[in-house]
């Protein structure tokens, strides 16, 4: 029954405050928001594999953890909540968290929905079309030669050794190639084993719609990841829903809605940056539509996706040792500089360090300004009349056409005849 007057109350369905015209049940003495009257009974969100159902007056003995699995705040079970009906699944979420437009696409699941059909929807669809040859490793049979939907030639598996080029990258995730990986004997194509086994379609916590694997890019020849806002040229998962341009690179796709990072003592959980938090690693403030990780214990710590996916160690060809990702620097201020570009480092920003050689490098000096762009790939830009390519660590090259300095990081070059065009990426 609608109470047509202004009054303050707490909605018994969603647990948040109201200030006028609630609906009232005289039998149960419930006060409910007008919008909460039409809350769906069953919904599906990408934060959980199963259908979750609206529950009211959940008994204490039915759940072990009353922490919302989306915002990681306490769920007061005297109010409504969404939970997984599975007896062994303890997923629970606030009503407002589960039905937030960033989490739920608005699809209502029918009453009596068969959970077994759900498994078909979420079952990985492998893009390996044929296994040409297999080998036995212990008790497992491993595909040593395959045909893949996204490449014309057969791919062979390598468990050890290196490629001919130290700068070789996986053509899908653009990370430096590492074993085990598949390669093509007819062309310069490399693919991590994990990337080769990715499904064509899959849900992800970062987005409310089902995502599809794609190798398409914008007209310029590259894309911008909607999760970390970085440029990339590898494959991605894209949303093809109407008026939705979400796309996420393969590296971000490997993340889940929670993260345990060695830089922080507590676990982190995924949020959209609606509160304008800054990254504790690089001190950048992500855009409000970006996602980032926040401390579950509400410490003043957060991590954007570009810093969360930094490798813990990296190989730099001008150092004999691996560089280690370092989170703080206790040295004196005069030593806060990068040993490659010889420019100042901010003392609280992360950096890469070699303890044996006492070398400290900016993140972008160690990995490159654009670590997820494929070296040698052409792309278009209005800043130059010809297509240009990315190159890395050019020591014997013409000076930058803008600043006049020799490039010691990533740069842009034109390979057209009689076009001596080289520009630092930061100047481009």
UniProtKB/TrEMBL annotation:
GO terms for molecular function: zinc ion binding. Residues 10-72, 169-229, 337-401 form the Zinc finger PHD-type domain. It comes from the Eukaryota. SUPFAM superfamilies: Cysteine-rich domain. Keywords: Metal-binding, Repeat, Zinc, Zinc-finger. SMART domains: PHD (SM00249). Pfam families: C1_2. PANTHER family: CYSTEINE/HISTIDINE-RICH C1 DOMAIN FAMILY PROTEIN, DC1 DOMAIN-CONTAINING PROTEIN. This is Zinc finger PHD-type domain-containing protein. It comes from Gossypium hirsutum (Upland cotton). The lineage of its organism: Eukaryota, Viridiplantae, Streptophyta, Embryophyta, Tracheophyta.
